[in-house]
Amino acid sequence: MNPIHVALDTPDVDRAEALGRMVRGHVGGLKLGLEFFMAHGAAGVRRIAALGLPIFLDVKLHDIPNTVAGALRALAPLELGLVNVHAGGGAAMLAAARAACPATTKLIAVTVLTSLDDDDLGAMGVGDGAAAQVTRLAALARAEGLDGVVCSPHEVAGLKAGWADGAFVVPGVRPAGADVGDQKRVMTPRAALEAGASVLVIGRPITGAVDPAAAAAAIAESLGLGL
Ligand SMILES: O=C(O)c1cc(=O)[nH]c(=O)n1[C@@H]1O[C@H](COP(=O)(O)O)[C@@H](O)[C@H]1O
After folding, report:
1. Residue 184 annotated among the catalytic residues of the structure
2. pTM for the complete prediction?
3. What are 168-186's pLDDT values in tens digits?
4. Which of 18, 19, 54, 192 gives 81 a disulfide partner, CB atoms 3.0 to 4.6 angstroms apart?
5. In a 3-state reduction of DSSP, which class is residue 19?
6. If you measure from the C-alpha of residue 183 to the centroid of ligand 1, how many angstroms do you get, rounded to a whole number?
7. Which domain holds residue 97?
8. How many domains, in total, are found in the chain?
9. Could you tell me the CATH number of the domain that includes residue 180?
């Protein structure tokens, strides 16, 4: 299965649809996030889903258990491929999310955002670094029955060693030489896949390219995927 999910981070539904059409022959899924969902909601998701690829709705829910459960029930009619919540919402929130999320949608817990490094965590009172915090949050998510986690490519191998059937959704993916932007814990697509990623979330290296289809095709080729 093609692990590439393209992050269509735009508030312009026509642009998102056009990007989806351009890349769909080279990728395994499309990710819609807050920028898109705030502007277009469920109707926008349905329009992009009509392109025929699985949809990862990246809403990173983080609230009290009752609110997160209600949000997931409201999303159920969209028949999403994946949806995410923040593991930092705690055990009761994760349990409520699990109970509310359809079994056909993979429920994924965000651990430590890939835009954060050890210094950022230190400033928040987490003194032992990103990898240790990811390990703790992943254990919480697993204990509550979630399907997997979002983490950086650097943590995947360690997590996978103890959670063989977990889904490891990995942003912070950059082809060699690509602009890192606001990401701090990054790796190339091939290295991330070899580390054990199940899904590679890639946005700007594809959507910001002059030719998004060619950029997606080149990444797929770097992964050894036939076109
Ligand atoms: O949950 C996510 O998808 C996510 C988690 C995370 O820790 N870091 C992260 O970058 N993301 C998302 O992954 C995408 C990465 O986009 P690019 O940095 O443009 O490749 C964005 O849509 C982010 O919202």
Report:
1. no
2. 0.97
3. 999 999 999 999 999 999 9
4. 54
5. helix
6. 8
7. 4-222
8. 1
9. 3.20.20.70
